[in-house]
Amino acid sequence: MNADARAWAYLSRVAEPPCPELADLVTRVGAREAADRVRRGAVGERLAFHTEARRDIDCAQDDLDAVERLGGRIVTARDDEWPALAFSAFGRSARPRECHPPLVLWVVGEVRLDEVPGRAAAVVGTRAATAYGEHVAADLSAGLAARDVAVVSGGAYGIDGVAHRAALASDGLTVAVLAAGVDVPYPAGHTALLRRIAEEGLVVSEYPPGVRPGRLRFLTRNRLVAALSGATVVVEAGARSGAASTAGWARTLGRTVCAVPGPVTSSVSVGCHRLLRDGNAELVTRAEDVVELVGRMGELAPEEQRPTSPLDGLDEAQRRVYDALPARGARTLDEVAVAAGLPGPRVIGPLAAMEIAGLVTQRDGRWKLVRHR
Amino acid sequence: MNADARAWAYLSRVAEPPCPELADLVTRVGAREAADRVRRGAVGERLAFHTEARRDIDCAQDDLDAVERLGGRIVTARDDEWPALAFSAFGRSARPRECHPPLVLWVVGEVRLDEVPGRAAAVVGTRAATAYGEHVAADLSAGLAARDVAVVSGGAYGIDGVAHRAALASDGLTVAVLAAGVDVPYPAGHTALLRRIAEEGLVVSEYPPGVRPGRLRFLTRNRLVAALSGATVVVEAGARSGAASTAGWARTLGRTVCAVPGPVTSSVSVGCHRLLRDGNAELVTRAEDVVELVGRMGELAPEEQRPTSPLDGLDEAQRRVYDALPARGARTLDEVAVAAGLPGPRVIGPLAAMEIAGLVTQRDGRWKLVRHR
């Protein structure tokens, strides 16, 4: 068993993930045999290319010890908590090199990983969030947490951090998917936040302990944020944004993409507006909208309340008569008829009905509007 | 000729517009004969119903005099400047009672009315505009005016007024379509603005002089705002908004509907977001977007500029190598290979290419990133 775990840990580091050639080999011969062949260089040309630089590095036991010290574990397709259903979406796409499930996941936290994707939304956005974006991200995440929807994000500054914090503050489940090892607090300013997420939610990475984040790793990581969530909500995103990459992954994986609109004068709403304009995202303004999109069948957002008016129930003749009464002062029945453009006898019925409804009143044969508040 | 004009003026007042029965009669027997029959009550039951209350009122000459004093005129389907093409859209719809072209238009201003619809956008929205909405309305309208697109609106407080003013300030053409007679400045606080629009653009109404606005007249008027414009842009609109009514008319008439997004925390962006969410409007953020939608064929909005990065041109191996270099400090070639997960000989080419591009540099066999700015 421990030899198995060491084999998986070795494989997790030997090739930069995702590495489809390595995944194929593991599927064919199992993790221990695959690790053995890679170590000996007894693999095909493509896989040799991807493993040559690191095949002599074996810190598998150290990695397992490191994650155990954090109270974490390595999770693979052999484990019950592997979110196989969530990752099955990778198989449906055209599968460029990046579009593959992870080989292993390093996980810290008490929640079972496979319990996340069934009811989770990614809340993502720019690090350079505005006060508006932070407000909306917090509001959305708190609303999701209150409705038992896990909040998945990338642990970054800005929108990500606000989303995690708001979910924690609402005693909700939150999951941080990192582009670095689970023992590498990145950004450093989020060390305490990530520790708290590990304690109350989950911290997840496909990179072994000690791995530093990199530009490509952020993009690669984004596919897991999308895959672990039923919907991805972009709260604020600039013209060039990692959040747009997560949204792209969500679309590729058949997940719902949502975007929050914002002021057109805000450079960090440009990415959201582009997603909406191009028809690549649903416009959402409230947690309820998102819950409807990630929720289990039949969970519909309550209609937003629309203001009502006492005139809503009037028929056309009544509305014409109502309009024919002046804002101030009163009119005789004949004057009302002329103003409404209706025959005199035809304004009596509407006036009487509206008098009963308390909308108009008469005195000495002169009609006037009843003022409401 | 004057008898003709008097007949049209009489018909303009005798039935609340639009009155399809009256329009049919005029089409069949001409304006003078139609006026004569209505006056005598020698008309069918339906038309009698709609004309009975006002058929004895004849202030046609007074109305013509009043509009002439303003320097205006009455325009009908018999006149060259009648925007027949714009109004032909009414015929294509399912035609509820309201969905008919006007019988006459009272017009003040030197521009020919039929020159408007070919290149015009309606800019509409709530009277309770926010500073944000006013800013966007002004920016959009100035941009439209600068691109020779007429700005059509309803002359109201809030978005409408800002739109008219910005068009005037940019020496553009602006058209106010009123729900009252052209001699009735409504709202009173826009008396000077409406006078200026009449001097430099057009003030238009289907109601004869002296007619006061009413709730239904605002809704009826909205169809003309939409009909005279290639696209209708809703800048800010509450949950219950006249602007949504104009947008509905634009859709009915086959015109493009646009909506400007705003903060989801703003109650006067709710109407815009609903239009966008329901797929009933295009999301626009700039005048260029609108020009593309109303413009003559082939006029495309320039792509928004996206920020670029020196890494944009790199191939995959180069990006992996670039990512493998630390933010601070330097690495040997072997260290770079391990970090990138690429064979040692395969990082030399990428490093050399990026050195030429000025992205990385080496000293004593150790490579590091070149800092930009």
TrEMBL record, chains A, B:
<protein>
    <submittedName>
        <fullName>DNA-processing protein DprA</fullName>
    </submittedName>
</protein>
<dbReference type="Pfam" id="PF17782">
    <property type="entry name" value="WHD_DprA"/>
</dbReference>
<dbReference type="InterPro" id="IPR057666">
    <property type="entry name" value="DrpA_SLOG"/>
</dbReference>
<dbReference type="InterPro" id="IPR003488">
    <property type="entry name" value="DprA"/>
</dbReference>
<dbReference type="InterPro" id="IPR041614">
    <property type="entry name" value="DprA_WH"/>
</dbReference>
<comment type="similarity">
    <text>Belongs to the DprA/Smf family.</text>
</comment>
<feature type="domain" description="Smf/DprA SLOG">
    <location>
        <begin position="74"/>
        <end position="293"/>
    </location>
</feature>
<dbReference type="Pfam" id="PF02481">
    <property type="entry name" value="DNA_processg_A"/>
</dbReference>
<feature type="domain" description="DprA winged helix">
    <location>
        <begin position="306"/>
        <end position="365"/>
    </location>
</feature>
